[in-house]
Amino acid sequence: MRAQFVLSEIGVGLRRNLTMTFAVIVSVALSLALFGGSLLMSDQVNTMKGYWYDKVNVSIFLCNKSDAESDPNCAKGAVTSEQKEQIQADLKKMSVVDTVAYESSDQAYKHYKEQFGDSPLASSLTPDQMQESYRIKLKDPEKYQVIATAFDGRDGVQSVQDQKGILDNLFGLLNGMNWAARAVMAMMLVVALMLIVNTVRVSAFSRRRETGIMRLVGASGFYIQAPFIAEAAVAGLIGGGVACGFLVIARYFIIDHGLALSEKLNLINFIGWDAVLTKLPLILATSLLMPALAAFFALRKYLKV
Amino acid sequence: MIRFDNVSKVYPKQSRPALRDVSLEVERGEFVFLVGSSGSGKSTFLRLILREERCSQGQVHVLGKDLARLSNWKVPQMRRQLGTVFQDFRLLPNKTVGENVAFAQEVIGKSRGEIRKSVPQVLDLVGLGGKEDRRPGELSGGEQQRVAIARAFVNRPKLLIADEPTGNLDPQTSVGIMKLLDRINRTGTTVVMATHDQNIVDQMRKRVIELEKGRLVRDQARGVYGYQH
């Protein structure tokens, strides 16, 4: 196989089909940029989950005297010290529990004062209106339900609250956006594949004289197909390179500079460059192999031996 | 070299077979004319030899190989031992004469040194020495056909298939082409040529195979184009 001959054939093919080649490059670039973007979005959501789930607790709020009058959950009166001991002992036995911290009503009052200081509501509160609570950190934050079923409705317990539920709404939204991006990506990918198949067919058709002669003089199937497959792969790879450029630029302008979200949103910790860079080889490999395979199957019908 | 045993060919969606129970043998070094009116099965006969089609019944042997049992990926190897020439030359207009001939060697992976040596040689053989850098469009029909023959012969095939090679040429040019094919035949290459050209067949006095509606109706050594009924 003579490399120079094959390369010159590829060059001729790509130039002859310049508009189609351009369309292939753009559609591959867009679909793979979306593909990479959705991968990075999942990474971002996972990073945020890891960061926030570490900080969230499950809280078991206990009944106090004023709850005993107003809240049907506390109809049996304020929590007793036996009930508290029982709860603490049960928590220690549970394998999903990492740590347990007890917060007395005085401590709760102090925290409340720190957070809301001079608001009119805060000044009317007294320590015995605050609830005692257990703050539980779970080994796996997803296992909230275990705690809820064990303690919800138990005597002396007013409610079991999971802070993760609030975060989950946010993550749900981000995941939804991610799936939308993937749907768009899938459609772009189909468009890209159809364009590739069509481009390869047009290319094969415009060179049917050459391929016809190749067949007659006994060129192998691979030798006849290789230029077309390589053409598709080169166009795809250029598209993949553009997609990689998009991702790097997006990371640079959205997180570090330009929009500079990392400065404006201190509470969120963002994905690093490593997350972006590890996606690039995957994108480049996809951009090379996907068009090559599409071309291969497009030609199987077209260039029979 | 070529052996047909009771070969029939029916194309899909056609009731009448293109070839019907044809049996014949062509020996190494023979020169064979294949005659018959249009639609008599000449092209199908040639396509079966080239393994562009497979026969429906019977067996086709070419160069000692049973083509029905030759797997697809081995077909190119088989075709490298065949040369083909057509009525419409089938040259690449944007390549020079030399490049057209070299193309047949490039695509089967011959080395550059080999190509540089064999292309001028074969162009001399067909009488086009010194015209390597011309393009097919600058040549006469006869010269273009010589280029096509050079391309078919450059890999030194054992069998040359010619499908009406003089169909587009005037009688005088045709004679030149026939002399060239005769010379190639004398190097030991078997030639099978389908033709409508009565003068040529009558002059050459080679073996004649006649097909009619898919049947083999005549196989005659040193024959002429048609019987006088």
TrEMBL record, chain A:
<dbReference type="GO" id="GO:0005886">
    <property type="term" value="C:plasma membrane"/>
</dbReference>
<feature type="domain" description="FtsX extracellular">
    <location>
        <begin position="56"/>
        <end position="160"/>
    </location>
</feature>
<protein>
    <recommendedName>
        <fullName>Cell division protein FtsX</fullName>
    </recommendedName>
</protein>
<dbReference type="InterPro" id="IPR003838">
    <property type="entry name" value="ABC3_permease_C"/>
</dbReference>
<dbReference type="InterPro" id="IPR040690">
    <property type="entry name" value="FtsX_ECD"/>
</dbReference>
<feature type="domain" description="ABC3 transporter permease C-terminal">
    <location>
        <begin position="184"/>
        <end position="301"/>
    </location>
</feature>
<dbReference type="Pfam" id="PF18075">
    <property type="entry name" value="FtsX_ECD"/>
</dbReference>
<keyword id="KW-0132">Cell division</keyword>
<dbReference type="InterPro" id="IPR047929">
    <property type="entry name" value="FtsX_actino"/>
</dbReference>
<comment type="similarity">
    <text>Belongs to the ABC-4 integral membrane protein family. FtsX subfamily.</text>
</comment>
<keyword id="KW-1133">Transmembrane helix</keyword>
<comment type="subunit">
    <text>Forms a membrane-associated complex with FtsE.</text>
</comment>
<feature type="transmembrane region" description="Helical">
    <location>
        <begin position="21"/>
        <end position="41"/>
    </location>
</feature>
<dbReference type="GO" id="GO:0051301">
    <property type="term" value="P:cell division"/>
</dbReference>
<dbReference type="InterPro" id="IPR004513">
    <property type="entry name" value="FtsX"/>
</dbReference>
<feature type="transmembrane region" description="Helical">
    <location>
        <begin position="179"/>
        <end position="200"/>
    </location>
</feature>
<feature type="transmembrane region" description="Helical">
    <location>
        <begin position="221"/>
        <end position="254"/>
    </location>
</feature>
<keyword id="KW-1003">Cell membrane</keyword>
<keyword id="KW-0472">Membrane</keyword>
<comment type="function">
    <text>Part of the ABC transporter FtsEX involved in cellular division.</text>
</comment>
<keyword id="KW-0812">Transmembrane</keyword>
<feature type="transmembrane region" description="Helical">
    <location>
        <begin position="280"/>
        <end position="299"/>
    </location>
</feature>
UniProtKB/TrEMBL annotation, chain B:
<keyword id="KW-0472">Membrane</keyword>
<dbReference type="InterPro" id="IPR027417">
    <property type="entry name" value="P-loop_NTPase"/>
</dbReference>
<dbReference type="GO" id="GO:0051301">
    <property type="term" value="P:cell division"/>
</dbReference>
<keyword id="KW-1003">Cell membrane</keyword>
<comment type="similarity">
    <text>Belongs to the ABC transporter superfamily.</text>
</comment>
<keyword id="KW-0131">Cell cycle</keyword>
<keyword id="KW-0547">Nucleotide-binding</keyword>
<dbReference type="InterPro" id="IPR017871">
    <property type="entry name" value="ABC_transporter-like_CS"/>
</dbReference>
<dbReference type="GO" id="GO:0022857">
    <property type="term" value="F:transmembrane transporter activity"/>
</dbReference>
<comment type="function">
    <text>Part of the ABC transporter FtsEX involved in cellular division. Has ATPase activity.</text>
</comment>
<dbReference type="InterPro" id="IPR003439">
    <property type="entry name" value="ABC_transporter-like_ATP-bd"/>
</dbReference>
<keyword id="KW-0067">ATP-binding</keyword>
<dbReference type="InterPro" id="IPR005286">
    <property type="entry name" value="Cell_div_FtsE"/>
</dbReference>
<dbReference type="GO" id="GO:0005524">
    <property type="term" value="F:ATP binding"/>
</dbReference>
<dbReference type="InterPro" id="IPR015854">
    <property type="entry name" value="ABC_transpr_LolD-like"/>
</dbReference>
<feature type="domain" description="ABC transporter">
    <location>
        <begin position="2"/>
        <end position="228"/>
    </location>
</feature>
<dbReference type="InterPro" id="IPR003593">
    <property type="entry name" value="AAA+_ATPase"/>
</dbReference>
<dbReference type="GO" id="GO:0016887">
    <property type="term" value="F:ATP hydrolysis activity"/>
</dbReference>
<dbReference type="Pfam" id="PF00005">
    <property type="entry name" value="ABC_tran"/>
</dbReference>
<protein>
    <recommendedName>
        <fullName>Cell division ATP-binding protein FtsE</fullName>
    </recommendedName>
</protein>
<keyword id="KW-0132">Cell division</keyword>
<dbReference type="GO" id="GO:0005886">
    <property type="term" value="C:plasma membrane"/>
</dbReference>
